[in-house]
Amino acid sequence: MEKLGKLNLKEKIGYGVGDTASCLYFQTFSMFLMYFYTDTFGISAAAVGTMFLVTRIWDTANDPIMGMITDRTNTKYGKFRPWILWMIIPYVITGIALFYTPNLSMTGKLIYAYITYTLVTMVYTAINIPYGALLGVMSSNPDQRPQLSSFRFLGAFTGNIIIQGTLIYLVAFYGQGNDQTGYPLAMATFALIAAGLWFFTFSSTKERIQPPKEQQTKVWQDLKDLGRNRPWLVLCVMGVLTLIWVSLRNGAMMYYFNYYVGDEAKAAPFMVVGTIFSLLGVASTTYVTRILKGKKKAFIVLSALNAALTAVFFIAKPDDFVLMYASHILGSFVGGPLMPLTWSMFADTADYAEWKFGRRATGLIFSAGTFSQKMGWTIGGAIAGWVLAAFSYQPNMVQTEETLVGIRLMMSILPAIGSLLVCVAALFYNLSEEKLLTIEEELVERRKSQ
Asked: Could you report how far apart the first and last alpha carbons of the chain are, in Å?
Protein backbone atom coordinates (compact mmCIF):
# COMPACT_ATOMS: atom_id res chain seq x y z
CA MET A 1 0.00 0.00 0.00
CA GLU A 2 1.23 3.51 -0.82
CA LYS A 3 2.35 5.54 2.16
CA LEU A 4 -0.51 7.64 3.47
CA GLY A 5 1.15 10.98 4.14
CA LYS A 6 0.98 14.52 2.93
CA LEU A 7 -0.71 15.45 -0.34
CA ASN A 8 0.98 17.80 -2.80
CA LEU A 9 -0.43 21.20 -3.63
CA LYS A 10 -1.61 20.23 -7.14
CA GLU A 11 -3.72 17.40 -5.77
CA LYS A 12 -5.26 19.63 -3.09
CA ILE A 13 -6.12 22.27 -5.71
CA GLY A 14 -7.41 19.58 -8.07
CA TYR A 15 -9.74 18.31 -5.38
CA GLY A 16 -10.79 21.83 -4.40
CA VAL A 17 -11.86 22.95 -7.88
CA GLY A 18 -14.29 20.04 -8.02
CA ASP A 19 -16.45 21.93 -5.56
CA THR A 20 -16.11 25.04 -7.70
CA ALA A 21 -17.71 22.99 -10.50
CA SER A 22 -20.37 21.73 -8.09
CA CYS A 23 -21.23 25.17 -6.80
CA LEU A 24 -21.58 26.67 -10.26
CA TYR A 25 -24.73 24.55 -10.27
CA PHE A 26 -25.67 24.26 -6.59
CA GLN A 27 -25.36 27.98 -5.91
CA THR A 28 -27.46 28.75 -8.97
CA PHE A 29 -30.13 26.32 -7.80
CA SER A 30 -29.97 27.58 -4.21
CA MET A 31 -29.99 31.34 -4.85
CA PHE A 32 -31.72 31.81 -8.18
CA LEU A 33 -33.81 28.83 -9.26
CA MET A 34 -36.97 29.60 -7.30
CA TYR A 35 -36.70 33.23 -8.34
CA PHE A 36 -36.27 32.10 -11.98
CA TYR A 37 -39.29 29.81 -11.76
CA THR A 38 -41.62 32.42 -10.24
CA ASP A 39 -40.49 35.61 -11.98
CA THR A 40 -39.18 34.37 -15.37
CA PHE A 41 -40.81 31.01 -16.14
CA GLY A 42 -44.11 32.04 -14.55
CA ILE A 43 -44.78 29.22 -12.05
CA SER A 44 -46.52 30.08 -8.76
CA ALA A 45 -44.48 30.08 -5.53
CA ALA A 46 -46.67 27.39 -3.95
CA ALA A 47 -46.29 25.13 -7.00
CA VAL A 48 -42.52 25.64 -6.94
CA GLY A 49 -42.38 24.76 -3.24
CA THR A 50 -44.32 21.56 -3.84
CA MET A 51 -42.17 20.67 -6.85
CA PHE A 52 -39.02 21.13 -4.78
CA LEU A 53 -40.44 18.83 -2.11
CA VAL A 54 -41.44 16.06 -4.54
CA THR A 55 -38.36 16.13 -6.76
CA ARG A 56 -35.87 16.56 -3.94
CA ILE A 57 -37.30 13.63 -1.99
CA TRP A 58 -36.45 11.48 -5.01
CA ASP A 59 -33.08 13.21 -5.31
CA THR A 60 -32.38 12.60 -1.63
CA ALA A 61 -33.24 8.91 -1.93
CA ASN A 62 -30.68 8.58 -4.74
CA ASP A 63 -27.75 9.53 -2.53
CA PRO A 64 -27.27 6.33 -0.49
CA ILE A 65 -28.01 4.27 -3.62
CA MET A 66 -25.25 6.10 -5.47
CA GLY A 67 -22.97 5.67 -2.48
CA MET A 68 -23.43 1.91 -2.49
CA ILE A 69 -22.89 1.81 -6.25
CA THR A 70 -19.59 3.67 -5.95
CA ASP A 71 -18.43 1.43 -3.10
CA ARG A 72 -18.90 -1.50 -5.48
CA THR A 73 -17.26 0.16 -8.49
CA ASN A 74 -13.82 -1.21 -9.36
CA THR A 75 -11.81 0.28 -12.22
CA LYS A 76 -8.18 1.13 -12.92
CA TYR A 77 -9.05 4.71 -11.85
CA GLY A 78 -10.50 3.60 -8.51
CA LYS A 79 -14.03 3.56 -7.14
CA PHE A 80 -14.95 7.25 -7.16
CA ARG A 81 -12.87 9.11 -9.76
CA PRO A 82 -14.34 7.35 -12.84
CA TRP A 83 -17.82 8.61 -12.03
CA ILE A 84 -16.54 12.17 -12.23
CA LEU A 85 -15.28 11.49 -15.76
CA TRP A 86 -18.40 9.61 -16.90
CA MET A 87 -20.86 12.30 -15.77
CA ILE A 88 -19.24 15.42 -17.28
CA ILE A 89 -21.27 15.49 -20.52
CA PRO A 90 -24.67 14.74 -18.89
CA TYR A 91 -23.81 17.45 -16.33
CA VAL A 92 -23.47 20.05 -19.09
CA ILE A 93 -26.60 19.03 -21.03
CA THR A 94 -29.02 18.86 -18.08
CA GLY A 95 -27.79 22.13 -16.59
CA ILE A 96 -28.58 24.05 -19.77
CA ALA A 97 -31.94 22.31 -20.27
CA LEU A 98 -33.04 23.29 -16.75
CA PHE A 99 -33.10 26.99 -17.66
CA TYR A 100 -34.67 26.64 -21.09
CA THR A 101 -38.18 28.16 -21.13
CA PRO A 102 -40.43 26.52 -23.74
CA ASN A 103 -43.72 28.26 -24.55
CA LEU A 104 -46.13 25.91 -22.78
CA SER A 105 -49.32 26.03 -20.75
CA MET A 106 -49.01 26.25 -16.97
CA THR A 107 -49.41 22.48 -16.73
CA GLY A 108 -46.82 21.99 -19.47
CA LYS A 109 -44.39 24.29 -17.67
CA LEU A 110 -44.79 22.32 -14.45
CA ILE A 111 -44.22 19.01 -16.23
CA TYR A 112 -41.13 20.39 -17.96
CA ALA A 113 -39.81 21.77 -14.67
CA TYR A 114 -40.41 18.44 -12.88
CA ILE A 115 -38.64 16.46 -15.60
CA THR A 116 -35.61 18.71 -16.12
CA TYR A 117 -35.06 19.37 -12.42
CA THR A 118 -35.27 15.65 -11.64
CA LEU A 119 -32.74 14.85 -14.37
CA VAL A 120 -30.25 17.54 -13.37
CA THR A 121 -30.36 16.51 -9.71
CA MET A 122 -29.82 12.85 -10.60
CA VAL A 123 -26.75 13.75 -12.67
CA TYR A 124 -25.54 16.08 -9.91
CA THR A 125 -25.84 13.19 -7.45
CA ALA A 126 -23.94 10.83 -9.74
CA ILE A 127 -20.96 13.19 -9.91
CA ASN A 128 -21.08 14.85 -6.48
CA ILE A 129 -21.44 11.75 -4.29
CA PRO A 130 -18.23 10.15 -5.66
CA TYR A 131 -16.52 13.53 -5.42
CA GLY A 132 -17.42 13.90 -1.75
CA ALA A 133 -16.36 10.34 -0.93
CA LEU A 134 -13.02 10.92 -2.65
CA LEU A 135 -11.93 13.02 0.35
CA GLY A 136 -12.13 9.93 2.54
CA VAL A 137 -9.74 7.85 0.41
CA MET A 138 -7.11 10.36 -0.68
CA SER A 139 -5.35 10.36 2.71
CA SER A 140 -5.90 8.94 6.19
CA ASN A 141 -3.67 11.57 7.79
CA PRO A 142 -5.86 13.43 10.36
CA ASP A 143 -3.98 16.67 9.69
CA GLN A 144 -4.44 16.43 5.92
CA ARG A 145 -8.21 15.97 5.95
CA PRO A 146 -9.11 19.38 7.43
CA GLN A 147 -6.68 20.93 4.92
CA LEU A 148 -8.21 19.00 2.04
CA SER A 149 -11.67 19.91 3.27
CA SER A 150 -10.64 23.55 3.43
CA PHE A 151 -9.37 23.41 -0.17
CA ARG A 152 -12.71 21.89 -1.12
CA PHE A 153 -14.65 24.72 0.42
CA LEU A 154 -12.30 27.38 -0.84
CA GLY A 155 -13.23 25.94 -4.23
CA ALA A 156 -16.89 25.97 -3.28
CA PHE A 157 -16.88 29.59 -2.25
CA THR A 158 -14.99 30.49 -5.39
CA GLY A 159 -17.87 28.95 -7.35
CA ASN A 160 -20.28 30.90 -5.18
CA ILE A 161 -18.51 34.17 -5.95
CA ILE A 162 -18.60 33.48 -9.67
CA ILE A 163 -22.36 32.85 -9.61
CA GLN A 164 -23.23 35.62 -7.19
CA GLY A 165 -21.07 38.20 -8.89
CA THR A 166 -21.80 37.44 -12.53
CA LEU A 167 -25.07 35.53 -13.08
CA ILE A 168 -27.38 38.54 -12.91
CA TYR A 169 -25.14 40.49 -15.27
CA LEU A 170 -24.64 37.59 -17.69
CA VAL A 171 -28.40 37.07 -17.90
CA ALA A 172 -28.79 40.75 -18.72
CA PHE A 173 -25.90 40.69 -21.23
CA TYR A 174 -27.08 37.60 -23.12
CA GLY A 175 -30.77 38.39 -22.85
CA GLN A 176 -30.72 42.12 -23.62
CA GLY A 177 -33.92 42.51 -21.61
CA ASN A 178 -35.22 38.99 -22.28
CA ASP A 179 -34.38 36.81 -19.27
CA GLN A 180 -35.83 33.74 -20.98
CA THR A 181 -32.95 34.01 -23.44
CA GLY A 182 -30.38 35.21 -20.92
CA TYR A 183 -30.70 32.40 -18.38
CA PRO A 184 -29.97 29.37 -20.62
CA LEU A 185 -27.05 31.14 -22.33
CA ALA A 186 -25.58 32.16 -18.97
CA MET A 187 -25.98 28.60 -17.70
CA ALA A 188 -24.27 27.24 -20.82
CA THR A 189 -21.26 29.40 -19.98
CA PHE A 190 -21.06 28.03 -16.45
CA ALA A 191 -21.67 24.45 -17.60
CA LEU A 192 -18.66 24.51 -19.94
CA ILE A 193 -16.45 25.99 -17.22
CA ALA A 194 -17.63 23.26 -14.84
CA ALA A 195 -16.80 20.56 -17.39
CA GLY A 196 -13.18 21.71 -17.56
CA LEU A 197 -12.88 21.86 -13.77
CA TRP A 198 -14.34 18.38 -13.30
CA PHE A 199 -11.82 16.95 -15.74
CA PHE A 200 -8.97 18.56 -13.81
CA THR A 201 -10.29 17.04 -10.58
CA PHE A 202 -10.42 13.60 -12.19
CA SER A 203 -6.92 13.85 -13.69
CA SER A 204 -5.08 15.36 -10.70
CA THR A 205 -6.32 13.24 -7.77
CA LYS A 206 -5.59 9.69 -6.62
CA GLU A 207 -7.36 7.14 -4.44
CA ARG A 208 -5.05 5.59 -1.82
CA ILE A 209 -7.21 3.97 0.86
CA GLN A 210 -8.92 0.68 0.12
CA PRO A 211 -11.44 -1.26 2.25
CA PRO A 212 -9.98 -4.12 4.34
CA LYS A 213 -9.09 -7.01 2.01
CA GLU A 214 -11.28 -9.47 3.88
CA GLN A 215 -14.32 -7.16 3.72
CA GLN A 216 -17.31 -8.54 1.82
CA THR A 217 -19.61 -6.06 0.07
CA LYS A 218 -22.96 -6.79 1.72
CA VAL A 219 -25.55 -4.04 1.43
CA TRP A 220 -27.44 -5.07 4.53
CA GLN A 221 -24.26 -5.06 6.60
CA ASP A 222 -23.27 -1.63 5.31
CA LEU A 223 -26.68 -0.25 6.29
CA LYS A 224 -26.54 -2.00 9.67
CA ASP A 225 -23.14 -0.47 10.41
CA LEU A 226 -24.43 2.93 9.38
CA GLY A 227 -27.35 2.70 11.80
CA ARG A 228 -24.94 1.86 14.64
CA ASN A 229 -22.57 4.72 13.85
CA ARG A 230 -23.68 7.28 16.45
CA PRO A 231 -21.43 10.19 15.43
CA TRP A 232 -22.58 9.76 11.83
CA LEU A 233 -26.24 9.83 12.92
CA VAL A 234 -25.67 13.05 14.87
CA LEU A 235 -23.96 14.64 11.87
CA CYS A 236 -26.95 13.71 9.72
CA VAL A 237 -29.34 15.51 12.06
CA MET A 238 -27.01 18.51 11.99
CA GLY A 239 -26.97 18.36 8.19
CA VAL A 240 -30.76 18.36 7.90
CA LEU A 241 -31.16 21.33 10.23
CA THR A 242 -28.31 23.29 8.64
CA LEU A 243 -29.62 22.99 5.10
CA ILE A 244 -33.15 23.90 6.17
CA TRP A 245 -32.03 27.30 7.42
CA VAL A 246 -29.51 27.82 4.61
CA SER A 247 -32.18 27.04 1.97
CA LEU A 248 -34.65 29.43 3.56
CA ARG A 249 -32.17 32.29 3.66
CA ASN A 250 -30.72 31.69 0.21
CA GLY A 251 -34.18 31.36 -1.26
CA ALA A 252 -35.16 34.70 0.25
CA MET A 253 -32.12 36.68 -0.93
CA MET A 254 -33.27 37.82 -4.37
CA TYR A 255 -36.80 38.57 -3.13
CA TYR A 256 -35.36 40.55 -0.20
CA PHE A 257 -33.32 42.82 -2.45
CA ASN A 258 -35.83 43.14 -5.26
CA TYR A 259 -38.92 43.82 -3.17
CA TYR A 260 -37.75 44.96 0.29
CA VAL A 261 -34.55 46.87 -0.51
CA GLY A 262 -35.98 47.87 -3.88
CA ASP A 263 -33.02 47.08 -6.15
CA GLU A 264 -32.29 43.56 -7.43
CA ALA A 265 -28.83 44.60 -8.66
CA LYS A 266 -27.69 45.33 -5.10
CA ALA A 267 -27.91 41.61 -4.33
CA ALA A 268 -24.82 40.77 -6.42
CA PRO A 269 -22.19 42.84 -4.53
CA PHE A 270 -23.84 41.95 -1.23
CA MET A 271 -23.54 38.21 -1.93
CA VAL A 272 -20.00 38.53 -3.27
CA VAL A 273 -18.79 40.41 -0.18
CA GLY A 274 -20.32 37.76 2.03
CA THR A 275 -18.67 34.99 0.07
CA ILE A 276 -15.27 36.68 0.23
CA PHE A 277 -15.50 36.75 4.02
CA SER A 278 -16.77 33.17 4.00
CA LEU A 279 -13.60 32.28 2.10
CA LEU A 280 -11.55 33.97 4.82
CA GLY A 281 -13.51 31.95 7.36
CA VAL A 282 -12.79 28.74 5.48
CA ALA A 283 -9.08 29.61 5.35
CA SER A 284 -9.11 30.04 9.14
CA THR A 285 -10.77 26.65 9.81
CA THR A 286 -7.64 24.89 11.08
CA TYR A 287 -6.66 27.87 13.24
CA VAL A 288 -10.16 28.35 14.69
CA THR A 289 -10.46 24.61 15.42
CA ARG A 290 -7.16 24.72 17.29
CA ILE A 291 -8.12 27.83 19.28
CA LEU A 292 -11.51 26.38 20.26
CA LYS A 293 -9.91 23.00 21.07
CA GLY A 294 -11.69 20.71 18.65
CA LYS A 295 -14.17 20.46 15.80
CA LYS A 296 -17.26 19.97 17.95
CA LYS A 297 -16.76 23.03 20.14
CA ALA A 298 -15.77 25.14 17.14
CA PHE A 299 -18.94 24.10 15.33
CA ILE A 300 -21.21 24.98 18.27
CA VAL A 301 -19.64 28.36 19.00
CA LEU A 302 -19.58 29.45 15.36
CA SER A 303 -23.18 28.33 14.75
CA ALA A 304 -24.43 30.28 17.77
CA LEU A 305 -22.65 33.44 16.62
CA ASN A 306 -24.02 32.97 13.11
CA ALA A 307 -27.58 32.71 14.46
CA ALA A 308 -27.29 36.00 16.35
CA LEU A 309 -25.87 37.85 13.36
CA THR A 310 -28.53 36.46 11.00
CA ALA A 311 -31.40 37.53 13.26
CA VAL A 312 -30.25 41.17 12.95
CA PHE A 313 -31.69 41.36 9.42
CA PHE A 314 -35.25 41.42 10.75
CA ILE A 315 -34.72 44.87 12.27
CA ALA A 316 -32.78 46.31 9.32
CA LYS A 317 -34.57 49.02 7.34
CA PRO A 318 -34.40 48.95 3.50
CA ASP A 319 -31.61 51.54 3.49
CA ASP A 320 -29.66 50.25 6.52
CA PHE A 321 -26.77 49.10 4.38
CA VAL A 322 -24.14 49.58 7.09
CA LEU A 323 -26.06 47.28 9.45
CA MET A 324 -26.79 44.78 6.67
CA TYR A 325 -23.20 44.61 5.48
CA ALA A 326 -21.68 44.50 8.97
CA SER A 327 -23.94 41.63 10.03
CA HIS A 328 -23.45 39.85 6.73
CA ILE A 329 -19.66 40.18 6.79
CA LEU A 330 -19.33 38.93 10.36
CA GLY A 331 -21.90 36.18 9.86
CA SER A 332 -20.21 35.00 6.69
CA PHE A 333 -16.83 34.89 8.37
CA VAL A 334 -17.95 32.87 11.39
CA GLY A 335 -20.08 30.63 9.15
CA GLY A 336 -17.23 29.92 6.73
CA PRO A 337 -15.61 27.08 8.70
CA LEU A 338 -18.89 25.21 9.31
CA MET A 339 -19.01 23.15 6.11
CA PRO A 340 -15.29 22.24 6.11
CA LEU A 341 -15.74 21.10 9.69
CA THR A 342 -18.81 19.07 8.76
CA TRP A 343 -17.16 17.13 5.93
CA SER A 344 -13.99 16.60 7.91
CA MET A 345 -16.16 15.12 10.66
CA PHE A 346 -17.88 12.83 8.14
CA ALA A 347 -14.44 11.53 7.10
CA ASP A 348 -13.75 10.88 10.78
CA THR A 349 -16.94 8.81 11.06
CA ALA A 350 -15.71 6.61 8.18
CA ASP A 351 -12.55 5.90 10.20
CA TYR A 352 -14.70 5.29 13.27
CA ALA A 353 -16.81 2.76 11.38
CA GLU A 354 -13.73 0.86 10.18
CA TRP A 355 -12.25 0.91 13.69
CA LYS A 356 -15.50 -0.06 15.44
CA PHE A 357 -16.99 -2.59 13.01
CA GLY A 358 -13.97 -3.71 10.92
CA ARG A 359 -15.64 -2.55 7.70
CA ARG A 360 -15.23 0.57 5.57
CA ALA A 361 -18.03 1.98 3.36
CA THR A 362 -16.70 5.46 2.58
CA GLY A 363 -19.04 6.06 -0.36
CA LEU A 364 -22.12 5.13 1.65
CA ILE A 365 -21.09 7.24 4.64
CA PHE A 366 -20.48 10.34 2.51
CA SER A 367 -23.52 9.78 0.30
CA ALA A 368 -25.77 9.21 3.28
CA GLY A 369 -24.30 12.39 4.77
CA THR A 370 -25.23 14.21 1.58
CA PHE A 371 -28.62 12.49 1.86
CA SER A 372 -29.20 14.24 5.18
CA GLN A 373 -28.17 17.61 3.81
CA LYS A 374 -30.34 17.19 0.74
CA MET A 375 -33.24 16.30 3.01
CA GLY A 376 -32.70 19.65 4.73
CA TRP A 377 -32.44 21.33 1.33
CA THR A 378 -35.69 19.59 0.33
CA ILE A 379 -37.58 20.73 3.40
CA GLY A 380 -36.07 24.22 3.36
CA GLY A 381 -36.80 24.77 -0.33
CA ALA A 382 -40.39 23.66 0.07
CA ILE A 383 -40.87 25.84 3.15
CA ALA A 384 -39.47 28.86 1.28
CA GLY A 385 -42.07 28.50 -1.49
CA TRP A 386 -44.89 27.87 0.96
CA VAL A 387 -43.92 30.82 3.19
CA LEU A 388 -43.98 33.14 0.17
CA ALA A 389 -47.41 31.79 -0.80
CA ALA A 390 -48.68 32.04 2.80
CA PHE A 391 -47.69 35.71 2.89
CA SER A 392 -49.51 36.34 -0.43
CA TYR A 393 -46.48 36.81 -2.69
CA GLN A 394 -47.25 37.88 -6.28
CA PRO A 395 -44.35 38.14 -8.78
CA ASN A 396 -43.29 41.30 -10.62
CA MET A 397 -45.40 43.75 -8.62
CA VAL A 398 -45.18 45.92 -5.49
CA GLN A 399 -45.55 43.65 -2.46
CA THR A 400 -47.87 44.22 0.50
CA GLU A 401 -46.53 44.85 4.01
CA GLU A 402 -47.65 41.32 4.91
CA THR A 403 -45.55 39.82 2.12
CA LEU A 404 -42.53 41.90 3.06
CA VAL A 405 -42.73 40.62 6.65
CA GLY A 406 -42.67 37.07 5.32
CA ILE A 407 -39.61 37.81 3.16
CA ARG A 408 -37.85 39.40 6.16
CA LEU A 409 -38.63 36.39 8.36
CA MET A 410 -37.11 34.08 5.74
CA MET A 411 -33.99 36.23 5.69
CA SER A 412 -33.53 36.46 9.47
CA ILE A 413 -35.54 34.91 12.31
CA LEU A 414 -36.38 31.55 10.71
CA PRO A 415 -32.78 30.71 9.69
CA ALA A 416 -31.50 31.94 13.08
CA ILE A 417 -33.78 29.46 14.85
CA GLY A 418 -32.51 26.71 12.57
CA SER A 419 -28.89 27.55 13.36
CA LEU A 420 -29.56 27.35 17.11
CA LEU A 421 -31.17 23.94 16.68
CA VAL A 422 -27.98 22.77 14.95
CA CYS A 423 -26.02 23.80 18.06
CA VAL A 424 -28.28 21.62 20.22
CA ALA A 425 -27.80 18.61 17.92
CA ALA A 426 -24.01 19.07 17.90
CA LEU A 427 -23.89 18.57 21.67
CA PHE A 428 -24.50 14.85 21.07
CA TYR A 429 -21.48 14.35 18.75
CA ASN A 430 -19.06 12.08 20.65
CA LEU A 431 -15.80 11.87 18.67
CA SER A 432 -13.19 13.91 20.56
CA GLU A 433 -9.81 14.83 19.09
CA GLU A 434 -8.11 12.47 21.56
CA LYS A 435 -10.33 9.56 20.53
CA LEU A 436 -9.71 10.24 16.84
CA LEU A 437 -5.95 10.12 17.40
CA THR A 438 -6.30 6.74 19.09
CA ILE A 439 -8.48 5.45 16.26
CA GLU A 440 -6.00 6.58 13.61
CA GLU A 441 -3.05 4.96 15.39
CA GLU A 442 -4.87 1.64 15.70
CA LEU A 443 -6.02 1.71 12.05
CA VAL A 444 -2.47 2.35 10.85
CA GLU A 445 -1.28 -0.71 12.75
CA ARG A 446 -4.09 -2.84 11.30
CA ARG A 447 -3.32 -1.72 7.73
CA LYS A 448 0.37 -2.52 8.16
CA SER A 449 -0.53 -6.11 8.94
CA GLN A 450 -2.70 -6.52 5.82
From this structure: 9
